[in-house]
Give the backbone structure.
Amino acid sequence: MDKVVSSPALAIAGITDGMSLSVGGFGLCGIPSVLIAAIHESGLTDLEAVSNNCGVDGWGLGRLLGDRRIRRMISSYVGENKEFERQYLSGELEVELTPQGTLAERLRAGGSGIAAFFTRTGVGTQIADGGLPWRYDEQGAVILESPPKQTQEFEVHGETQTFVLERAITTDFGLVRAAKGDRHGNLVFNQSARNFNPLCAMAGRVTVAEVEQLVEPGELHPDEIHLPGIFVQRVLPLTPEQAADKRIERRTVRQKQEA
């Protein structure tokens, strides 16, 4: 039952080139930066990453992207990473853009054993009809695009509406960061870091959680646990320095007003 590992290298053991990773966080909030750094240092490449976004240039998943370690990305927002844009438009990176709520539900469904689900999001657009560019060539021509998805009509509140079928996502490994965790893998996330982290943890066949504070079993009240340990296979306790290393995505200040 003790799932604690002693080093980042042991935490990512078993990840090999070409594997898929679901990576928690939103922007730079709640990202498993220590695990990402360990993957970067290991030299792993040809990865498929599923995450809300791809970090920023030089930090988070942006570190892997900058060294061409990511082959394919499934995400919903990419606006803070110029290198991401460059690689995508020049044909170096395959990208499956997915509505944010749909991405969250695809991950949750994968962790819940639900193969697919119907949603209204994307009906009447290229999300449902197909044709979204997934990969360009070096000249900017689309060489791979999204396929059309199954649609079906359902009656909701007395009105017939069209829904699109979205398939669940599961990955080889899930990488997440938690504020607190015990040796059994029960996790607590801090405020807005409780965004994609529980969902990415659920979707991973093997999930690794880096935790800022490790506590003993029984110290977490059942009502405060956000993700039960059944979804977590490894726990990496962070040093105080690692836990404190949190970047700000964009700092905005206002001019100081004179008294």
